[in-house]
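2.7 Reproducibility. Because tokenized structures are sensitive to small changes in the input, we list the exact sequence used for histidine kinase, including any N-terminal residues retained from the expression construct. No trimming or masking was applied before prediction.
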Amino acid sequence: MVSSTFRFNIIFRIAILLISVFLLAHQVYSNGNLLGSLLILLLIVFQIISFVKYIEKSNEEILGIIDSLGEEDFTVENQKIANDSPDATSKILQKLQEVNQEKEAHYQYLKNIVQHLGIGIITFDKNGKIQIMNTAAKRLLKVRQVKSLEELRPISELLVNSCYELRTGGRDLIKIKQQDDMVQLAIYAIELTLKDEEFKLVSIQNIQSELEEKEMEAWQNLIRVLTHEIMNSVTPISSLAATVEGELQGQLSNGMEMNTMSNEDVETIHMAVQTIQRRSEGLIKFVSDFRNLARVPDPKFEDVQLITIFNRLRTLFKNDLDSNDIECNCTIIPEDLTLKADPELLEQVFINLIKNSIQAFENLDDDRKRMIDIHATQGPKNQVLIKIEDNGPGIDPEALEKLFIPFFTTKKYGSGIGLSISKQILRKHKAAISVKSEDNVGTEFTIRF
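Resulting structure tokens (single pass, no recycling of outputs):
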């Protein structure tokens, strides 16, 4: 809405200018005094200049308000232009002030939430300049005011390097020393872009107590597994050794020569010794598997093209796929997708997963079309997502929870260490593996790098 004062001033100035022009015309046509005509002409020029300056001043005041709004300064409502147009500018300014106050209140609300979170939060730009560091993070790292990530290096070199290197969705576990105690920290990172500037949000959580609880649970599971496997082998060995010892003791106590033993007794002793040998070999294999599980080598990173690995795997499993009538499809987007990994260790992971999928079809007797699908795609922030999916019988929900526990297996002759080793290999690559399965529908393993 146009201001009534502004309209009156415009009309008044135009009216005065028209009167002056009329007087000048009257002077000229009536052969009036030349000096009077010149004075009227000067008056007209003055009025035009004054009129232009008045318009320019009004425009400058409006532009001033616009500039102030651009700088989020809403205090210009007391300017003359705002007073002259209360129905327009003042209402706009009032509304913008309300929006700004609401935004500020929302910001303070979120800031208070971040500050009172029990998990440490640090946000920083690509140069390592810290924007936000909440109270939990300061308490966890025993610091007060920190302006840059580099100031945290004396506390933990690993922590700073991990903050820089982690991508969106990346996780890491590090240890830092606090006084006389070692504390285990879980780190999770998300990359953000705000107004064309890149930021990273890192959450830090002390998981020492949870880790100790899980460690105790893992030890208990391991002891149960070791007890089960060792007792399964040692019990028959002990029993058969006692049987052989009893047979021989009986012969010796009767004063009989060994060569006078009956064929039946010799056969019994022979079978007992064979069984002892077989169970001893099983025990040695178990110890060997356990040693392999505990000695996963560190990866030697290099650029690996996934298409190369999957082509080798398709050749490796060709006979198994053909004999079980399984169709294997591989989709990689883009085709030249690469990642930093140890090719031999990574290939071992894929061999374990594909072999599991093939073996899942062995006890399947329906006429479904058997398929194994491998998908590899590049997600946001250069993440690589790999899925290996089959339409086999699926995995029992109870077994699904124990799938990555060492020596747990659902197969008759399985060792139970393939998936455990695979998980350790992927952990050394800072990758994660998950599985989901539905009965009689299929199983899907997902690996995130």
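DSSP finds 13 helices and twelve strands in the chain.
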